[in-house]
Amino acid sequence: MKTTVLLLLIGLLPLPGFGQGDLLIYNVNIVNVTDGSLQKNRAVLIGEGKIKGIGDVKKLSRNVSKEQRINANGKYMIPGLWDMHVHLEGTQLVPDNEALLPVFLAYGITTVRDCASDLGRQVLVWRDEINKGQRIGPTIYTAGLKLEGKNSIWKGDLEIENEKELYQMLDKLDSMKVDFVKITENTLKGDLFLASVKAARARGYRVSGHVPYDLTIDELAAAGFTSIEHATYLLRLGTDEKTIKDGVIGGTLTKPDAESRYTSLFDQQTATANYKALGSRGMFVCPTLIGGRQLAYLDQTDHRGDVFLQYLTKRYVSNYQWRIDRMANETPAQSQQRKDRYQLLLKQMPLIHQAGITIIAGSDAAALNTYVYPAESLLDELEIFQQAGLTPLQILQSATINGTRYFGVEDKTGTVTTGKNADLVLLDQNPLTDVKALRAIYGVIAKGRYYDRQMLDAMLHQAHEKKVKLDEERR
Ligand SMILES: [Zn+2]
C-alpha cells in the first residue's frame, strides 16, 4: 500500500484508489442530507465515478471481488463537502497552492468554488487536470479572473471602464470557459457594475460578488445577481440602504461613514423583513464568517501552534502580515466594534436561513486572508454556523446540496443517491448530532476513487514534505 500511495502521489499511477472495477462499501450508515434521515447498515456500490446502487450487501456484492469490498464498520456516509468560496492565489505561490489540492480531499472537501484570483489561468488548468483524472484534488468550479474597475487594488483582475471593455472581458471569460462570473467593487462604478451583472447573466453565467456602496442589494437582486459573497453586506438590510447609498453618490457621506451607519443604525425588524424579500428572489449568500472571527479575536489568539501551519510555506504565511499590520493601530473601541459586529452577524444566520435565503458555506481561504487556512477553515466555518444556531442538518445542506443548487447540478451530485457522482466522505461519528463529527474522517471517495485513512495521511504527509522542501529552496 505504501508504494502505491507514493507512486500515485508523484503522479506515476494514472488511477489511484482501490484497483479496478466496482467498489462496494458495506456496513455503512447513510446520512440523507435532504431530509435528515439515516439509513442504517447499507451497502453502496460504486463504479465509473458514480453511485451504482444502494441496498443490501448480499445483493450488491455479487460481482465485486473480495479485495474491492470495504467494511465501513458502522461509519457514517455523507456527500463530499463543498467549500463555496476559496481563492487559489499568488503568482509566487504556484507550487504552494498545488501541494494543497490533495489536502482538500483529506479534509473531506471534494468540491471547491474558486472565486477568482491572479492565478485564474493556472486554476483552470488544475480544474481540467482534476476532471480528467490526471491530478488528485477537489472538483473545481472557478470564476477565473474577476471583473473590476481601473487601477483596483487587486492583482490580475479584468479591469473595465466602459461597456465596450466589459464585452471584451466577457469574451475573454467565455474563451477561458470559466464556470461563473465574479465582480467586485474596489474601483468599479455602480452603473457599470450593474451593467456587468446583466451582461454576464445574459450570457448564462451565475454572477457573484461584493456589494458596491453606490448600489443597493435590491438593485443587484433585480439585475439577476446570484450570490452575495460575505454576509457582512446583509447588515445593510437593517438600515434605510437607499438613503445611505444616495448619500454616498451625492457626496454627503464617505464610504467609512456609510459603513459605520450600517451598524449604528441597524434595526433587526427592518433587517428581518428585508431578508424575506431577498429570500423570495432566490438569492444565495456565502457568509464567510471565519475570516471576520480570526481578525476580531486576533488579539486573544496565539496561532503559533496551529496544526495547519505544517502545510503552509513561509512565503504563503508571509502574506498574512498585511492585515495584521493594518489592524495594529486599531483603538480598543475599534477592536470592540469588530467583535460586536461579528457577534451581530452570528445572530443573523438563523434569520437569514428562515427568510429563505440559501446559505452556501464557504471559507474564503486564501493566502491573503489571515489565518483562514485552506480546507480546515471550512470546518471552522461550519462550527461557527452551529454556534450561531443553525441545525447540523441545515449546516450539512449549506456545504453539500446548496452548492449543487447554486450551479444547477443537483440532479448529478450532492447526495448519497444511486446515479449521482461518487464524491463521498466516511465519518467516525454522526454529523447530524454535531458537525464537529466532520473532523474525524475515516475515508474519502472522490470521483469514485477510495482513499482510506492511511492514504489520506500519506497525502497530508506529502503536502508537509513539499512545504519543507519549498522553504529550504527559498532560503
Ligand atoms: Zn474571497
What does this structure look like?
Keywords: Hydrolase, Membrane, Transmembrane, Transmembrane helix. Residues 76-239, 351-449 form the Amidohydrolase-related domain. This is Amidohydrolase family protein. It holds the Pfam family Amidohydro_1. It is found in: Membrane. It is a single chain. The chain is α/β, with parallel strands linked by helices and 475 residues long. The chain folds into two domains: 2-79 and 423-462, Urease, subunit C, domain 1, CATH 2.30.40; 81-407, TIM Barrel, CATH 3.20.20. It contains 18 helices and 17 strands. It has helices at 2-9, 57-60, 94-106, 120-131, 163-176, 190-202, 217-223, 241-250, 255-264, 268-279, 289-296, 314-318, 321-327, 332-354, 376-388, 392-398, 401-407, 453-473, and strands at residues 23-31, 38-47, 50-55, 69-79, 81-86, 109-114, 139-142, 147-148, 158-159, 181-183, 207-209, 227-229, 284-286, 358-359, 424-427, 441-446, 449-452. The strands form four sheets. It has a seven-stranded mixed sheet. Helix 1 (2-9) crosses helix 18, helix 3 (94-106) packs antiparallel against helix 18 (453-473) and helix 5 (163-176) crosses helix 6. The two termini are 34 Å apart. Mean pLDDT is 95; it is low at 10-19.
